[in-house]
Amino acid sequence: MNANLFALFETRFPADRTACCIETHDGLYYSWDDLDRATAKLANLLTGLGLPEGARVAVQVEKSPEALFLYLATLRAGYVYLPLNTAYQEAEIDYFVGNAEPSVVVCSSKNFAWVSKVAFRHGTSYVFTLDEDRSGSLLSRAAARPDTFETVPRADGDLAAILYTSGTTGRSKGAMLTHGNLASNAQTLHEYWGWRSDDVLLHMLPIFHVHGLFVASHGALLAGAKMIWAPRLDMAQVLKFLPRSTVMMGVPTYYVRMLQESRFDDDTCRRMRLFVSGSAPLLLETFEEFRKRTGHTILERYGMSETVMLVSNPYDSALGERIGGTVGMPLPGVSVRVVDGEGKPSAIGEIGNIEVRGPNVFKGYWRMPEKTREEFTADGWFKTGDVGRYGGAIVSQAGERAVPGNYVTIVGRSKDLIISGGYNVYPKEIESFIDEMPGVAESAVIGVPHADFGEAVVAVVVKKPGVELDEGELIGTLKGRIANFKVPKRVHVVDELPRNTMGKVQKNVLRQQFAAL
Ligand code: MLC
Ligand code: AMP
Asked: Pfam families attached here (predicted)?
């Protein structure tokens, strides 16, 4: 059997291939035949380039159905897809392209000049452009290719995608996901979340991370269900398209913003059967207010680039209820344990490190065997860097409620990570950019509570003697260098950073000091 993930999708295309697969926010309709033909043309283009086995196709483009087809075509042709956040700037792209050495890079035409320079410098053979209005060299080159293609055979363990996750040391690591990882997770979620062929997914997430690219798209593709495709979160489009949808996924900011919209109510959700939240903690307050406003209980789940989805609240009430503040139970076939500092299992209710094992867990970090070894235990469990517990209790305004012993609650992270609006920001990376700036002696980057983004990035900076530092100038300089969501919302200039007796910066003290921002 061909374990290529695309071959699995093909088996699930609806019998009527003229049916709508993707409807766009601006009124275009793509059928399943269109998807088949477009991915065939692109796969023919890629294979015609004579790329080496295992070649990477790196892509930094705006969201469009064609961008999704490019991902699917890369799978179909047996190459390895490398999605890149559109917010990444030159220094970030330079690192990813230098590290992954893709044979093909696809970018927006507005970025072609600098992206192609970076790519060719690192040995990339082909740079194509693709814009959200279907223009660019990629599609024009693919247009004349045949519209049939036999999906290339792949084994479970073959690489399908590399997703870069920022590292605690500042260097990003490429998580290598296989066809088997993605297929097993998609099939598990298909059943666990009760996907149906008559579902309509409102797809508003970006498609360069696990949530939008895999969890949402794979769900619809595997069900042979339709997607309504919007380029980004937009309340006018939520109000327009949600009444025709049955499933929606978002990071917590999506739900916070929907609740801020006074016209959003139970009628807007009249056909909905499932709202999924993940990528960052959903506040209990949001969970409860959403239920009150719409009558729907958001299903919160927990995932990572390295593991796709590992834990989820149940869809089927026979399995249990969706408990706000928890991320639910390990998915079928996935093992999750909570251990203490010595690796011994923690008792129910006790906090420890979350570790995971299963067919969803990635193959390792691209060209970083040592880092890979460090992140796995001797007996093969992946250390998530998240801290949590089984069972225990959830405290809310309504009082305290006991949580069943098979539910996981995430209480924090052992990794120094900020999650802002569902995007990960590693303080070390931002600190290294700030520390290079003239007049800066040192810096500490922290996350503080933020009503919209959950957490916001804040920098605390110590200046060199005799110089003046301007907050606006520092922020302005950073904006040109790193992705906008990583840029601190505020910069505070201080005389010194609080340190413990070991000389380590006490970020907890800073977090307390600036919490009220
Ligand atoms: C945008 N901005 C952000 C931001 N997004 N700042 C902090 N955090 C963010 N996430 C800033 C921009 O820099 C800009 O600042 C200003 O906000 C407006 O930009 P925008 O593009 O108009 O923002 P908006 O469209 O409102 O985007 C916010 C958002 C978006 C929350 C809708 O960030 C988003 O879609 N996030 C989803 C992330 C996601 O898909 N995560 C999944 C990861 S997978 P300025 O100063 O330039 O004006 C994963 C695994 C798992 O974690 O479990 O799923
Ligand atoms: P990423 O590396 O971008 O894949 O981000 C993965 C991280 O997001 C996890 O390790 C968690 O810290 C966090 N995360 C994902 N889902 C949730 C959730 N439901 N609640 C809290 N944190 C989450």
From this structure: AMP-binding, AMP-binding_C
**pLDDT recorded at residue 167:** 59
Q: Check if 422 has its Cβ closer than 6 Å to any atom of ligand 1.
A: yes
The answer to whether 429 and 349 have CB atoms below 8 angstroms apart is no
Q: How many whole angstroms from 483 Cα to the centroid of ligand 2? A: 19
Q: Please indicate, yes or no, if residue 444 is contained in any of the structural domains.
A: yes
Query: Ligand 2 centre and the CA of 280: distance in Å?
Result: 5
C-beta atoms surrounding 429 within 10 Å:
20
- Pocket flag, ligand 1, residue 303 (CB < 6 Å): yes
d(C-alpha 445, C-alpha 434), whole Å: 9
Q: Per the domain annotation, does 445 fall within a domain?
A: yes
* Average confidence (pLDDT) per 10 residues, the chain, 517 residues: 97 98 98 98 98 98 98 99 97 96 98 98 98 98 98 98 79 95 98 98 98 98 98 98 98 98 98 98 97 98 98 98 98 98 96 98 97 96 97 91 97 92 94 94 96 96 94 94 96 94 92 88
**CB of residue 420 inside a 6 A radius of ligand 1:** yes
Q: Which segments of 14-72 are extended strands (E)?
A: 20-24, 29-31, 56-60
- Residue 128 and residue 136: Cα distance in Å, rounded? 7
Q: How many whole angstroms from 168 Cα to the centroid of ligand 2?
A: 15
Ligand sitting nearest the alpha carbon of 85: 1
CATH of the domain at 482: 3.30.300.30
Q: Give the pLDDT of residue 166.
A: 73
**Structural domain count of the chain:** 1
In a domain, 430, yes or no: yes
pTM: 0.96
What number does the ligand 2 atom closest to the CA of 423 have?
3
Q: Residue 166 domain-assigned? A: no
Six-digit token string for 409: 């609650």
Sequence-ordered strand ranges (E) for 317-398: 329-330, 335-339, 352-357, 364-365, 382-390, 393-396
Whole-number Å distance between alpha carbons of 494 and 508: 16
**pLDDT for position 170:** 61
Query: What is the domain extent for residue 494?
Result: 418-513
Are 499 and 505 a contacting pair, CB within 8 Å?
Answer: yes
Nearest-CA residue for ligand 1 atom 34 is 421
- Closest ligand (CA of 208): 1
How far apart are alpha carbons 160 and 360 in whole angstroms? 13
Q: How far is the CA of 47 from the centre of ligand 2 (A)?
A: 35
